[in-house]
Design brief:
The protein is 49% helix and 21% strand. It has 380 residues and is an alpha+beta fold. A six-stranded antiparallel sheet has the order 10-15-14-11-12-13. A four-stranded antiparallel sheet has the order 1-2-3-4. The longest helix is centred in the middle third of the chain and has 33 residues.
Length: 380
Amino acid sequence: MKQEYTISLYWRIFYGAMGTSAIVFSLFLLTKPTNGLIIFPVVFGTGGVVTLINQFKSKLIISDYSIVRTTVFGTKELLRADIKGFRINNKVIVIEPVEAGYSKIKIRDYSSIGNLNNLTSWLRTNLKDLNKEDYEKEKNDIINNANLGYSEGERTDKFKAITRLSGIYNFVGFVLFVLFLFFLRDTSAADAILLVFPLIGISIIYFSKGLVTLISKRNSAYNNVMPGLYLGVLLLVLKSLNYYHITNYDKLTVPSLILGSVILGVLAVKGFNNTYSSRIGQFLLMIIFSAAYAIGVIANVNCSFDKSSAQIYSTTVTDKFISYKHATNYHIRIDSWGDHHEAEYIIVPKSFYYHTSVGSTVRVMEKKGLFKMPWFYVDL
């Protein structure tokens, strides 16, 4: 038996067009003054040539004796007797050897392979699914963890419940992201939701007894709340920095460091996934998340909980436009006011945008800020 898998016709045409375009673009660059930057046409040209050649070289051959992977960069072969199993990951199929000294066979961008369903069916029928094995092992470790309950049934129920909870949290994060972009961003309810939602995710991690971490592998039995947390924190930062017009960030550092350190401490104690390979990578992700959340919270609270009296200035709208990148945003350009000696563009609510016109007068309401970070908003 011998089966050969190559790139499908559709992807041959696609990659062929990409490679040809890269070569043509490199030749175009060579006709222009380079100022010594010859590297750019060389890179584009080389990439185009490699892409074109790989359309004919790329193949996977499966026989009774071995599996052979050939690309423009070379050929790798694993004897069937030396194969431990396979993994189907996001962008690559990996065929792993029994002995660590042998090279793995990696099939990158496997969606471009013709008759992919036949290939994956053969792999599942003839080789061990290592992702599935890892999942079952992790699940058994969880079910046998006495810290999760007295009986196996209790531990199983807790595992199923926390799996549902983390899935619901991530789904709600996606829903909130969509609602915020189109409906809720200019409401006071949005502020409360965006402040609390990431805390709910952190609480799930903290009280899950290790069943939920900040991040986990795609096919892991351990759950994560990273999608929901990421979307929640992203929304909070966008809301805080784009819709509250803070004029001085000097006072942001200290409270952000304090809050960020607390969040980082909680995540460092409860959020590590011991089945994930890189603890350094996890810790860096925790730092980024903690810093982003802390900055978003402090900036938001500084403005939304500010009870100081506003100092009022009058200014003129000199331009307005709507942008549609990532989300619909409404911009107006206001003339100089107070200590602001130059005109500036700001994002305003949709309702405010349609109640103003170029040449109309608006009021700038400047406030001190709860954390002494001055900010302003515009009013009619």
